[in-house]
Amino acid sequence: MRKATNFGKVGFVTQLTGKRIVKEVIPRLVSVLSRLSGRLGARLAWYLWFHPHGRRNTRYPEAAEEFTLEVFGHQMDGFTLGEGEPVLLLHGWGGASTDMAPLAGAVADAGYRAVVPDLPGHGSDKSSYTDVFRMAATVDAAAGRFGPPRAVVAHSFGAVVTFAAFQHGGPERVVLVAPAVKGEWFLDAFGEHVGLSDKAYRIFRERFEAFAGPQLMSVLSGNGDVPGADILVLHDPEDDRTPYADAVEYTERRAATKLIAVPGTGHKGILRDADTRAETVSFIRGGYGLGAGTGTPGI
User: Fold this and answer.
1) C-alpha distances in angstroms, 295 versus 158, 164, 165, 169, 299?
2) What does 70-132 look like in DSSP terms, one character per residue?
């Protein structure tokens, strides 16, 4: 029997499964099928996991300049704001580049060029399929187009994408906003939400681990890192989607890492918060002087 996961008010699973029919009707179907056939239930869950139905919001800020990247032969859109050294901003699972617009504006006003792509299966992308490898490839494509970023600002699951893309080093500064520093629990939350039987979940989990490989599974287990970077974590202690306790544990284990609580903002509201914007810009400019991060947490 797998361990129960408290992911709070089904809020987080909205990011995983998107539209109402996917959130309510299909999970019931998966639950029934997984009890009739574990393999069939796992197969349907596999499809749902990699098709998160991210928001299709393409209303970029008025002053934004749009761009297109090619990732695995597929076009990915995004926008930039401002001029200067590039700062890459990454949205979370089930989100869109426009989620990052308030922070992008603050970064641009501070004299940097905010580079904000839609990740595969999200935002303006016409495809519904995504996985961490394609997301990381989008980050690589953005860095190739605009130059190596001075900093990365990542929201929620964007933290996992950041760790996957920069596992060998990269930006000097990383800001993680309401991060999923332990992405592994996503799997448990997803399995519970769609009602997988124990057998179906075991099949799904084994297939996922084989697909992800040991490096990504290590990241999902909480060992993600950007070697050599200073990391600032901004998180609401009452966030009902990504556990604050995981952020506390991460910052206690990793050198050159600082946690700032931003209470009362919520998982998405934190992106629009004035303190979040101010702390992000101050840190990118060189605030706190944490010293170079070393090694991978927990290893």
Assistant:
1) 20, 15, 16, 10, 8
2) EETTEEEEEEEESSSSEEEEE--TT--GGGGHHHHHHHHHTT-EEEEEPPTTSTT-S-----H
CATH ID of 65-181+226-284, from 3.40.50.1820, 3.40.140.20, 3.10.20.440, 3.90.550.10? 3.40.50.1820
Among residues 135, 116, 126, the alpha carbon closest in space to that of 60 is found at 116
CATH 3.40.50.1820: which residues of the chain? 65-181+226-284
Structure tokens at 29: 């179907």
In the structure encoding, which two tokens stand for residue 168, read together? 């060998």
Q: Is 282 helix (H, G, I), strand (E, B) or coil?
A: helix
Question: For residues 112 and 144, is the Cβ–Cβ distance under 8 A?
Answer: no
Mean pLDDT on 138-155? 97
pLDDT, mean of residues 117-136: 89
pLDDT tens, residue by residue, 40-69: 999 999 998 998 765 666 688 889 999 999
d(CA 248, CA 222): 12
Are 123 and 57 contacting, i.e. CB atoms less than 8 angstroms apart?
Answer: yes
Phi, then psi, of 42 in degrees rounded to 5: -65, -35
**Residue 248 CB neighbours (<10 A):** 16
Residues 217/199, Cβ–Cβ less than 8 Å: no
